[in-house]
Structures are given as structure tokens and as C-alpha cells.
Amino acid sequence: MKITTLKKLNLSLISILQFSLWVIIFLVYLLSVKPSDIVVFLNVGQGDAILIQKGEIQLLVDGGNGKEILYELPKYMPFYDRHIEYLLLTHPHDDHLVGLLHVLESYDIGEILYYPVCYENNNYETLLSNSTKKRGVSAGDTISLDSLEIDIIWPREGDSTAENCIKSWNGNINNDSLVLQFEYLNKKFILMGDAEKEVESILISEGVVSGKYDILKAGHHCSKTSNSETFLKVITPGYAICSCGEGNKFGHPSSETLNIFDSLAVQYLVTYEQGNIQIK
Ligand SMILES: [Zn+2]
Fold first, then answer.
1. What span, in angstroms and rounded, lies between the C-alpha atoms of 133 and 113?
2. Which of 49, 142, 145, 236 is most enclosed, with most CB atoms within 10 A?
3. Centroid of ligand 1 to alpha carbon of 87 (angstroms)
4. What would the mean pLDDT of 94-112 be, rounded to a whole number?
5. pLDDT bucket at 238, cuts 50 / 70 / 90
6. How many whole angstroms from 221 Cα to the centroid of ligand 1?
7. What is the CA(55)–ligand 1 centre distance, in A?
8. Is residue 83 pLDDT above 70, yes or no?
9. What is the pLDDT of residues 207-220, one digit of tens each?
10. What pLDDT does residue 3 have?
11. Is 134:127 a contact under the CB 8 Å cutoff?
């Protein structure tokens, strides 16, 4: 009788110790996710999602096409931080927009930044009808993440229509993408959204871009409609990031674009090959 009681006691002691060990492992895991200064090009399938984090301040540029973003953000944001200061929609195509709707349901959002271009898309309407504070932005505006200043260099603000939105610049909504540039982590970044060659030409001819860039978020998922040789020769990126899903129906990244990267010795990284691409 005595022996049985001791055995039981030993077993429950072992269980408590095992449980405590798991609790400790879990706490160490949670504490290991600390806020860090980082830019991450997230692997969210066919679409764009870029997290710019300065300490506990976040700017999420696009959200990809689905829920994948919700699995990627916790890898970089501290577990206790459920607040994202800014969501920025470069342009209202689903491969940039849909993930932001999921983020809005799961996080507390400070402000949605977007270029108020006229475009019919139910998901765009859903985003715009969300009660979160919204701000229309365009070239000349700056987003401040503490001391980090992110400059918006495109599009120039167009004329408003009767519907209270802005007419597309040339009818191709890709070319109404918000284009961002900033210096962070001792690197110069340019994020092109899905802007195409017509926008690249203007950025060059008007001297909006100049000098060497370290990191280019290549336009339109490294499609051949963007990333002209002339543009790449001007900005001479150290790395080009292609944000694409494996086996996508659009054929991104275009072999033509990759050949230009090769010929100019631009190193390129594709999200579906590399996974999340972190710049620290
Ligand atoms: Zn896109």
C-alpha cells in the first residue's frame, strides 16, 4: 500500500516537472520574438507583402492574396504587440489587397494609407468601408516610423472625379502603384509596387530616382512589363527582390527580366525560392 502511494507521488512529480519544462520552453520561445529593426519581403504566394519594422512600430506594405500573411507576421512582431501602426495598399489589385483584409480582422490598425484611385473591386470597397482611419497619400508625402522617414515618390496626385476618387493615370492600375523609397539599416531601398516601364521612365527623366540603390523590390513581380534595362542601369540595384508564388499563371518572374538582371550583375532573390527575405 505504501509503495503504491509513493509511486503515485513520483509520477505526479514527474508530470509537474514535465509540465514546468514545457512552460519554460514556451516562455523562452515567446521572449525570443523581440522587436527588431528589419525589412522583410514576405513569402505569401503570388502577391506582395513587405513588413518594415522599427522597434515596435510597423508599416505593412500590401498583404498578399490570402491568409498567409497571418502566419508570417508573428515570426517578426513581438507576441505582445497586436498593433500595426500603418497598413499601406500600393494599388487595389487582390494580390496586394486581400491579405490586408485578414490583417484588419486580426490586428489593431492605426491607419490605412492608400492612393485613392478609382477602381472597381469588391475587396477594395470592403477595405474602404472599414472603420479604420484612412489617409490618401501620393508623391511628396512622407510616412514617419519614429526617425525612419519613408518617401512616397509616385503617383503624383491626379484630379478627383465626381465619385471622389482619383482617375487612373494611364488606365493601367499597376501604374497607379504607390512607389516608396527610404534609407534604413544603412541601405537604400526602393519599392516599386506593380509600377511598369512608363512610370520608370518618368522617375528617371524627372530625376526622382538617382544614384545607387541597395535593394529594389522589383516592379510587378519581376514581370517584363517592368524593370526596363534603362531603369536598372540608372538605379543599379545591389539586389532585386521578386515577390512571386511558385508556378503562378502569369509566368512571373519573367525570364526576360532575369536575363537583364544577369547581364547587369544584379543579384535577384525570388520569394518562393528563398522564403521570407530579411534585410537587417
Ligand atoms: Zn501584383
1. 9
2. 49
3. 16
4. 98
5. very high
6. 6
7. 28
8. yes
9. 999 999 999 999 99
10. 57
11. no
Strands of the sheet containing 148-154, edge to edge, are: 142-145, 148-154, 179-184, 187-191, 215-217, 239-242, 267-270
pLDDT given at position 88: 98
User: How remote is the CA of residue 26 from the centroid of ligand 1, in Å?
Assistant: 37
- Going from the Cα of 46 to the center of ligand 1, the distance in angstroms, rounded, reads 8
Q: How far is the CA of 179 from the centre of ligand 1 (A)?
A: 13
Q: Which residues pair with 154 in a beta bridge?
A: 179
The mean pLDDT of 64-83, rounded to a whole number, is 95
Cell numbers at 278, concatenated:
530579411
Collect all residues with Cβ–Cβ distance below 8 Å to 78 and sequence separation of at least 6: 33, 34, 35, 56
Question: How remote is the CA of residue 25 from the centroid of ligand 1, in Å?
Answer: 40
Distance 248 CA to ligand 1 centre (A): 12
Dist. CA 93 → ligand 1 center (Å): 6
Mean pLDDT value across the chain: 94
Q: What is the pTM of this model?
A: 0.88
17 CA distance to ligand 1 centroid (A)?
51
pLDDT of residue 9: 65
How far is the centre of ligand 1, averaged over its atoms, from the C-alpha of 70 (Å)?
A: 19
Please list all protein residues whose beta carbon sits less than 5 angstroms from ligand 1, which is an ion: 95, 194
CA 127 to ligand 1 centroid distance, Å:
17
How many angstroms separate the alpha carbon of residue 194 from the centre of ligand 1?
5
